[in-house]
Amino acid sequence: MQLDFFPSRTLTLYLAKMFVARIAAMLFVLVLVLMMLDLLSSSGEILAVEGNGQGELLTYAGLRIPQLVSRFLPYSVLLATLITLVTLNQNSEVIAMKAAGLSAHQVLAPLLLTAGLVSVATFAFNERVVTRATETLKAWEAVEYGPIPEEERVRTNIYLNDNGNILTAGYLAGSGEGIVMRQVTWYERNADGMITEQVEAEEARYAAPGWQLSGVTRFGVQNAVTDTPDTLLVGEALTPDQIDLAKIDPDAEPFWTLTRSIAEFERAGRPTAELRAKWWHKISGPLSAFLMPLLGAVAAFGLARSGQLFVRAVIGMALGFAYFVVDNAALAMGSFGGYPPFLAAWAPFFLFLLIGETVLIRTEE
C-alpha cells in the first residue's frame, strides 16, 4: 500500500468530490461578494453615461466576473483545502486513513490531483475567456463606458514619440495600415522641448505617410488661439509597424498570440523582459492552485483534541497567502528588470513547493 501514490478508488473519489464541492462554494462566495463591491464602486460611472442602464451593468458584470474567477480561484482552492482538511481531522477520518496504512502524501494525493486539474482548467479559461473579457473591458473603460468598440485587437492608453513630438490615443484598433486611433492628442514641441501646439482629435488614420486627424481642435500655445480645421496631418515619421509595437498588453493577449508579439518585439530590438515574465507567469500562475493542498496540509494532521487544530489551520493559511505575496513581489521585480523573467515567474512556485514538502515530511513522514 505504501508503494501506491493514490489510496483506493473509493477513497480518492470521496476526497476529490468533497474538495471540488468546497472549491466551488468558496469561489461562488468570493466572486459574489467582490462583484457586489465592484458594482458599488463602478455603477455610478457606468450609469452617468446617457443611455446606459441595467443592461450595461449586466454587461460590466459579465466582463468583470471572468477576471475575478481567474484571480481568486487559487484563493478558493486554499480556503477549500483548509476547510476540507480541518473537517476530515475533526471527524477523525485522517486518523482512520493513517491507521489503514496511508502516508501523508497518499492522504493528500486526491486533493493534489484535483488541484492539478483545476490548474489546467484555469490556464484554458484564462487564455480563451479572461483575455477576451479583459480586452473588451479595457476598451470600454477607455471610452468611459460609452458604446463598446466593435473592432478587433483593441489596445488602450497609447503613447508615441515622434522626434520629440508626442502622440497619444485613448485606444486604437486594427493592425498595419488599417489601424484606427481614437481620442487622439498631438503635442508639437520645439527644439527646447516646450509645447508649442496642442491638437485634440476624435480619430486618426494612416495617410502614408503621416496620420490624418479628423474632428480636430487645435490650440496654439504661443498666441492662445483655438481653431478647428477639418483635417490635419501629423506624425509623418510614425509608421504602422512602429504603432503595432507601441504597446502590448499581456493580460489581454492569449498565450500563443503573446508568443508572436514577443518575437516581433525582439526582431525590432525592443526590450522584452517584462513581457517574458508575464509570458512565463501565464503558466506558473494557474499552477499556484496545485500548491495550495500542499501548503494547507499542515491543517490535516495532528490530533484535533490537542487544541492546536486552529493554530495549524492558521499556519496553513499563512503559508498560502505568503506565496501570493512573494509571487506578486517577484513578478513586479521581473517587470522592473530586477529578476530574470524565468526566475521572476517560477522562483516563488518552486520555493514554496520545497517549503510545503519540507513541512510535510518533517512533521508527518
Question: What do these coordinates show?
Answer:
It is found in: Cell membrane. This is LPS export ABC transporter permease LptG. It is a multi-pass membrane protein. Its main location: membrane. Strands 1, 2, 3, 4, 5, 6, 7 and 8 form an eight-stranded antiparallel beta sheet that branches. Helix 1 (9-47) runs antiparallel to helix 2 (54-90), helix 4 crosses helix 8 (288-295) and helix 9 (309-335) packs antiparallel against helix 10 (341-364). It is elongated, with a radius of gyration of 26 Å. It has helices at 9-47, 54-90, 93-99, 104-142, 240-244, 255-267, 273-284, 288-295, 309-335, 341-364; strands at 155-162, 165-173, 180-189, 195-206, 211-214, 217-220, 225-227, 231-234. The longest helix has 39 residues, at 9-47. It has two domains: 9-144 and 274-364, no CATH class; 164-236, lipopolysaccharide transport protein A fold, CATH 2.60.450. It has ten helices and eight strands. With 365 residues, the protein is α+β, with helices and mostly antiparallel strands. The two termini are 15 Å apart.
